[in-house]
Amino acid sequence: MNELLVISGKGGTGKTSLVSAFSALTDSKVLCDADVDAADLHLIMAPVPRERHDFQAGHTAVIAHDKCTGCGICRDLCRFEAISDDYVVDPTACEGCSVCVHFCPEKAVDFVLNTCGQWFVSYTRFGPMVHARLGIAEENSGKLVTLVRQKARTLADEQGRSLILTDGPPGVGCPVIAAIGGVDGVLLVTEPTVSGIHDMQRVVELAAHFHVPVMICVSKWDLNPDMTSKIESYAKEQGIVHAGNIAFAPLFTTSMVQGQTIFEANGHSDAGVAVKSVWENVFNRFTELVSH
Question: Residue 251: what pLDDT?
Fold first, then answer.
């Protein structure tokens, strides 16, 4: 099977709305929400979990007071000041470096594996979906992204589905790096602003580093046609496929509030026509890429 990743240089460009709309336009796919830090594809897909698993990663120090002699070594060595005067570890401040574990002469420090969130295999009206929920202020989102993608691939293999449609995280940080490695193509959703162009260029550079082909879609293009023209020119100069433009439409917000794709809310709208056009361009180009 092949994986198409939809990402953006910043949040709020509309990539989740596009992924949900694309899901209504294609069969034989597995949906994957890899934006684990702020997952919201479930708001539209209304997934019904069939599997629920804890996500465990990283460790936190815990001092056993029945063994602790109060020598102060752990507190002196902790560069994060996570250990109080009465030898209680602040789990939020603890970075899991394990210095206290190694240097405690009484072996009084346990190193507990963290439960950081959960991941799910669910059923939706548009097919199976793999998604996750990272706990508040938890780390290791890149590891969870990798796990979610692996499970989506396994599910696609088991069910004989040909496409993994992934809603990726915004930006260019660790979660994006975990999401982009090994995919077959990227649709980059950007906005016609100065910061939008800057963020778009950073994502293009990241995709080039991983040798992943990129297509570009301009969201809310009509809010700044001049900037949209600059994006189109940039795509042409870089040899990047311009998949199309989508105008600003309150229908995207309205449909999300109602838990629907834009096609379910109003399939004959101008926004729906534009999204269908973008999907056709993306799908045709993606098919060319994976066939070579």
Answer: 94
